[in-house]
Specification:
By secondary structure, this protein is of the alpha+beta class. Helices cover 62% and strands 8% of the residues. The chain contains 24 helices and twelve strands. β9 and β10 form a beta hairpin. α1 packs across α12, α8 runs antiparallel to α12 and α14 packs across α15. It starts with a strand and ends in a 39-residue tail after the last helix. The N terminus and C terminus are likely disordered.
C-alpha cells in the first residue's frame, strides 16, 4: 500500500512515507517524539520498575523461595568470621590464645549492635578437623536485602580484632553475603558505570572525526540517548509483567547506543552523500528516506527478532535482557525514520555547523571516484572480484581456522578467584573457608514443608536425611537444622563436598537430590523438600541454559532467514546472510577460547588463569552478534541491490555497494569496537570476556565478512543472487525498495530546509 501525494507520485514503503511525512510536518514529528520520550520516562518513573527476584527463577530455587515466602520466613543475612592459625606453628583451637581471639570476635561484633544470634564455634562444632580453623557465625539485624548497607561497622570491628591478634599468629577474617557485596561494590561497583558513561563520549568523538562537524556528530548521539531514555521508561512499565534487572538495563544501554548511533549514521551519511552529488536538499532527503531508511527498517526488524530469541530461554535474566534490547531497537528504529528526517529538514545546511579545521581529503577526490566512495576498499574489492574463488577460500579458511578452538569450548560459572583474581583479600578468605570447611562458604539448603513439621514420620525423615547426607559422601557435615514450628517449615544447611570446585560440588548436589532426598524425605507423603543454594542455582541455571540453546538458535536463524528472504526476495542472499553470520559468530567464539581458555595473549587483557568461558556468554553473544551483524549486512546488501535495480551489472553493483558503504560501516564498526573494548578493560573476567568477544566479532564482521567474503560470494553467484523460485514469488516484500534516480523518487512536496 502507498500514499499518493499532490504530484501524483506513488510513495511506497513505510520508511519512505515516514521520512517524507516527517520532513513535511517537521515540527509535529519533533514534538511527537519529544512528547513520547517525556511520557515514557514520566510514566515509567511513576509506576516504578519491578526487578527480578528468586521467585522469578525456575525449578527448585523458585519452589524453595515460594515456600519460605508463603510461610513468612525471612532468612536473615548470615555472616561468618574465620579464626585461623596463620602458619603450621600457629595456635590450635584448644589453645588459650585461639580461644581469646574467638571471645574477642564475639564481643566485638555484639558490641556493634548490628548483629544477633552470635554462635561460638565451641558450641556449634564449627572447628576444622585439623584444629587450625574455627568459624564464629552470626546474623545481621534488619532487612537482608539491605544488609550490605549496614555491614561496615561490623567489618571495622572485626578488622580491629584482626590487628590485635596478628602478632599471636592468628588470622581473623570476615566473609558472608553482605560483606562480599559491600567489598565488591566498593571495588568494582563504579567500574561498570564508568564504562557505560565513557561509551557516549567515545562514540561522539569518533562521530566527530567521521563527520567533521559538531552538529552532524551530535545528532546520532542525541537520538540514541533519547531512545535509551524512552526505553528505560518502557522497561519500568513492562516490568510489571516481565521483571527486569540492572543487567538488562546495562545491556539495553549498550545495544541502544550501538544501533541508535548506527541507524542515524546510515541515514545521515546517505543524505550528505546525495547532497555532495549535487542533488537539492529535498531530493537528498527523499533518497535517504527511500534507501537508508528502508535498510534501517529491515535491519531493525531483524535485530528485534534476534533479541526475541532470548525470550525462549525460560531464564528470567535472559528474558529481561531480550525484551529490553528488543524495545530499544524498535524505539531507535522508529526515531531514525521519523524524527531524524524532520531534524535534517529543520537544520538544512546547519547540519554542517561546527566544522573541524582539518582538511577534507575525501572532498578533493570525489570528482574522480564518486561521492562517498572509499579508495582503500575500492582497491580491496577490486582484488576480490578479480579472484573471487581464491578470496572466498582464503577468507573463509582463515575464519574457520580461528573458529576451530571453539569446538573445545569449556563453559562454567566462574569462581570468585577466576572472576576477580587475587586483587581482593576477601577472595582469599573465601578459598580458606572452603578449604577448611568444604562447602561451608556456600552450603546447599533443603527447605522442608510438611502439614506437621513435628510429626514423627517427618522428624525421622529429617534425621535420616542428616545421617545419609554424611554417609553418602555428599557432605562432611555438620548438617545444621533450623525449625520454624509455627509455620511447619524446616531448613537444612548442607555444606557440599567440593566447596569452590563447581564440578565436584555439583556431584555432591546430585547425590543429595537424586539419592539422599528420595530415600528419606521423599518417602513421606505431603512433604516438599526443594534443594536451593548457590551451587544449586548455578547448576539449574546452566542446565536451563543448555536445554534452551537449540530452540533459541533455531528461532533466530529461521526467522532471520525468513526476514532476509522477504526483504531481498532472494534465496541466495538469505542463505549467504545466515552462513556469513554463523561464520562470524564462530570466529568470535574461537577468539574467546584462544584468549580466555587457552591463555593465548591473555596477559594483554589481564585474563591469566581463567581457563574457561563464563557459562552465559555463548548464548548471549550469539543473539547479540547475530542481531548487530545484520546492521552492516542489510545496509551493504541494500546498496548492492539498489545499484542492481538501477541497471548496473552484478559485479559493478557489488563494487558500488561495498565501496560506497565502506565509510559508514567503518565508522559504525569503530564506534562499536571502541565501546565494547572499554568493557574488555574492566576488572571482572566475565566483563572482559563479553567486551573482547563483542569487539572481536564486530571487527571481523565489518572487515573480513563485509569487505571480502560478501563481495566474493556474491561475485561467484552472479545473477543467481537475485533468483527467486517461481513457487516463492507470491511472497510479499517486507519493505519496498525504491529506485534512486532523481526522477524515480517520490516527489511529495517537502518544506525547504532552513538555511543559515
Amino acid at each position: 500500500m502507498g500514499n499518493a501525494d499532490t504530484s501524483g507520485t506513488r510513495v511506497r514503503g513505510f520508511a519512505a512515507r515516514a521520512g517524507i511525512w516527517s520532513a513535511r510536518h517537521r515540527w509535529a514529528a519533533v514534538g511527537v517524539w519529544v512528547l513520547f520520550v517525556v511520557l515514557a520516562m514520566g510514566v515509567g518513573s511513576a509506576v516504578g520498575r519491578v526487578d527480578a527476584s528468586d521467585e522469578d527463577l525456575k525449578g527448585e530455587i523458585s519452589q524453595a523461595q515460594r515456600i519460605l515466602d508463603d510461610a513468612g520466613v525471612e532468612e536473615p543475612a548470615g555472616e561468618t568470621v574465620l579464626v585461623q592459625a596463620a602458619g603450621d606453628g600457629g595456635p590450635r583451637a584448644t589453645d588459650a590464645r585461639f580461644r581469646a581471639a574467638v571471645a574477642d570476635v564475639t564481643k566485638a561484633v555484639e558490641g556493634t549492635g548490628e548483629v544477633t544470634a552470635v554462635t561460638s564455634p565451641y558450641t556449634s562444632g564449627t572447628v576444622s578437623k585439623d584444629g587450625r580453623s574455627a568459624l564464629v557465625q552470626f546474623d545481621l539485624r534488619g532487612d537482608p536485602e539491605t544488609a550490605s548497607d549496614r555491614i561496615e561497622p561490623v567489618q571495622k570491628a572485626v578488622e580491629k580484632v584482626a590487628d590485635r591478634h596478628e602478632g599471636a599468629g592468628l588470622r581473623v577474617e570476615e566473609i558472608g553475603g553482605a560483606s562480599m557485596e559491600k567489598t565488591f561494590d566498593d571495588a568494582f561497583g563504579s567500574d561498570f558505570q564508568q564504562a557505560e558513561y565513557s561509551a557516549v563520549p567515545v562514540a561522539f568523538g569518533i562521530l566527530l572525526i567521521a563527520f567533521g562537524a559538531l552538529v552532524a556528530a551530535l545528532l546520532p548521539v542525541l537520538l540514541a540517548l533519547s531512545a535509551i531514555v524512552a526505553t528505560m521508561g518502557l522497561m519500568a512499565l513492562v516490568s510489571h509483567v516481565q521483571p527486569m534487572s540492572d543487567v538488562a538495563n546495562s545491556v539495553m544501554l549498550l545495544v541502544g547506543l550501538a544501533v541508535g548511533v548506527d541507524y542515524c549514521l546510515f541515514y545521515l551519511r546517505r543524505e550528505r552523500e546525495e547532497r555532495a552529488k549535487g542533488r537539492d536538499p529535498h531530493t537528498a532527503l527523499r533518497v535517504a528516506a527511500a534507501t537508508s531508511g528502508r535498510a534501517v527498517v529491515v535491519s531493525g526488524i531483524t535485530v528485534c527478532v534476534a533479541m526475541a530469541g532470548m525470550l525462549f530461554t525460560g531464564i528470567t535474566d535472559f528474558e529481561a535482557m531480550g525484551l529490553a534490547s528488543l524495545m530499544v531497537v524498535a524505539v531507535a528504529m522508529v526515531g531514525s525514520v521519523t524524527v531524524l528526517p524532520a531534524l535534517l529538514s529543520l537544520l538544512g545546511e546547519r547540519v554542517e555547523k561546527g566544522r573541524l579545521p582539518f582538511p577534507r581529503r575525501g572532498a578533493r577526490r570525489r570528482g574522480r571516484r564518486g561521492a562517498g566512495e572509499s579508495r582503500l576498499w575500492g582497491a580491496v574489492v577490486g582484488g576480490v572480484l578479480r579472484r573471487p574463488l581464491l578470496a572466498t577460500v582464503v577468507a573463509a579458511g582463515a575464519l574457520a581456522a580461528i573458529a576451530v578452538p571453539a569446538l573445545g569450548m569449556k563453559t562454567q560459572n566462574l569462581t570468585l578467584d577466576q572472576e576477580f583474581g587475587d586483587s581482593l583479600p576477601i577472595v582469599a578468605t573465601y578459598e580458606r573457608v572452603n578449604e577448611a570447611f568444604p562447602g561451608g562458604a556456600e552450603p546447599a539448603e533443603v527447605v522442608v514443608r510438611a502439614d506437621d513439621i513435628d510429626a514423627p514420620a517427618v522428624t525421622r525423615a529429617i534425621a535420616g536425611f542428616r545421617e545419609r547426607a554424611v554417609g553418602s559422601g555428599a557432605t562432611k557435615g555438620p548438617v545444621e537444622l533450623t525449625v520454624h514450628r509455627q509455620r511447619n517449615v524446616a531448613v537444612l544447611a548442607v555444606p557440599l563436598v567440593g566447596g569452590s570446585d563447581q564440578g565436584r560440588a555439583e556431584k555432591s548436589l546430585d547425590l543429595i537430590r537424586d539419592t539422599v532426598r528420595p530415600a528419606t524425605l521423599g518417602r513421606v507423603d505431603g512433604v516438599e523438600a526443594p534443594v536451593t543454594g548457590q551451587v544449586a542455582a548455578s547448576k539449574d541455571f546452566n542446565d536451563q541454559l543448555r536445554s534452551s540453546a537449540p530452540p533459541v538458535f533455531g528461532f533466530v536463524i529461521a526467522f532471520a532467514f525468513l526476514l532476509m528472504l522477504l526483504s531481498f526476495r532472494s534465496l541466495a542472499i538469505a542463505a549467504t546472510s545466515i552462513l556469513l553470520n554463523l561464520l562470524s559468530v564462530g570466529a568470535a567464539y574461537g577468539v574467546l577460547v584462544m584468549v580466555f581458555q587457552h591463555g593465548w595473549g591473555a596477559s594483554l587483557v589481564g585474563a591469566e588463569g581463567v581457563g574457561a568461558i563464563v557459562a552465559w556468554l555463548p548464548l548471549f553473544l550469539f543473539v547479540i552478534l547475530f542481531g548487530l551483524s545484520m546492521d552492516y549486512h542489510v545496509f551493504v546488501v541494500s546498496r548492492i541491490r539498489e545499484a542492481r535495480l538501477q541497471g548496473r551489472p552484478t559485479r559493478e553493483a557489488i563494487t558500488h555497494g561495498v565501496v560506497t558503504t565502506a565509510g559508514v560501516v567503518t565508522s559504525a564498526a569503530v564506534i562499536m569496537v571502541a565501546v565494547f573494548a572499554i568493557f574488555g578493560t574492566l576488572s571482572m573476567q566475565s566483563m572482559k570476556q563479553m567486551g573482547v568477544g563483542l569487539a572481536a566479532a564486530v571487527l571481523i564482521d565489518a572487515t573480513v565478512i563485509r569487505g571480502v567474503l560478501l563481495p566474493a560470494v556474491m561475485a561467484l553467484l552472479g545473477e543467481r543472487n537475485w533468483y527467486v523460485p517461481r513457487w516463492l514469488r507470491w511472497l510479499p516484500e517486507l519493505e519496498r525498495q525504491e529506485g534512486t534516480d532523481g526522477t524515480d523518487l517520490p516527489t511529495a512536496p517537502v518544506p525547504a530546509p532552513s538555511r543559515t
